[in-house]
Amino acid sequence: MRILVTGGAGFIGSNFIHYWLKTHPGDQVINFDNLTYAGHQESLQDVEGNPNYKFIKGDITDFTIVKNVMSGIDTVVHFAAESHVDRSIIDPLQFVRTNVLGTATLLNAALEAKVKRFHHVSTDEVYGELGSNDPPFTENTPYSPRTPYSASKAGSDHLVRAYFETYGLPVTITNCANNYGPYHDPEKLIPRFITNLLEGQKVPLMGKGENIREWLHVQDHAEAIDLVLQKGKIGETYLIQGEEKTNMEITQMILRILEMGGSMIEYVGHRLGHDFRYAINGDKLKALGWVRKHNIKDELPKIVEWYKQNEWWWKSLKSGRPNIDRSVQQSYEPKH
Ligand SMILES: NC(=O)c1ccc[n+]([C@@H]2O[C@H](COP(=O)([O-])OP(=O)(O)OC[C@H]3O[C@@H](n4cnc5c(N)ncnc54)[C@H](O)[C@@H]3O)[C@@H](O)[C@H]2O)c1
Q: Is the pTM value of this prediction over 0.90?
């Protein structure tokens, strides 16, 4: 099988490529990525010599190159996106361009190339925020995005569904919780906090750390996508559940692993439109046979160790980058 992975140089995409080459050694994997600030070919340097792996640099909004790349592809797994909520507050149009126009461009090319499956990777953030006692999101929860990031991902999900309904393109969609794992850009919460502490700096925790996220190991995510490709019903969406934790709980776990105390926390304002809680009911995917194999309490020490051992990967990425979160914080009291 020839599988096209868009955004394969990013966090989840690179972990997915590692997973796929290992578990499906007979398949050819084409990684199509335009190497934005979030794309790191270094994450895949160990597979560069693999004859079944090929990297093509290009933009998913460029129909000419996308059409070329799509030729002869059986399955598309679409990760490429602008993915950082804070950046979406600063530059929403870039998110609309990549996430909406880019997805539409891929869908058009996939239709022309008659691919057998177009799998779209999306987020639980499209459903908006939950209060403490609200039931978790299901596949039937109405979309209610509240940030330019989640709105642009919602737009891409709707387009994927429309290409199924209108043209019969064989699509599947997964919407998942926050991922954690190796090769995670140091701009995102867990790697940011780990690397800050490794460098002796405080960690910027929004509000009182009361916001709640679900956390999913990137390997469990890869297995879920693999399962949906094998057993998922065409045209359907599957939610991938993680474990609910407050940001304070995550922060304290990291501090404990590094034997540091609460004095290393710097409390900062919430980002504009900071969603309070996301939670997922993953029963539909579990009915296909998916089981979450990792839990964050056991895995976080390994992730911390990975960042300790792989300074070569993150140090240069971190130096010289502006503090994005400083520009998007506000100081009002949260509603919850
Ligand atoms: N990280 C999470 O916790 C999480 C949770 C839920 C859903 N998702 C979704 O999973 C997908 C992957 O997320 P991630 O965290 O790996 O993202 P990432 O930001 O780490 O990687 C995105 C990749 O896409 C590439 N890219 C960006 N614009 C492109 C363009 N125009 N053309 C080609 N390539 C382009 C980047 O170079 C990068 O390699 C995204 O669609 C995201 O919305 C992520």
A: yes
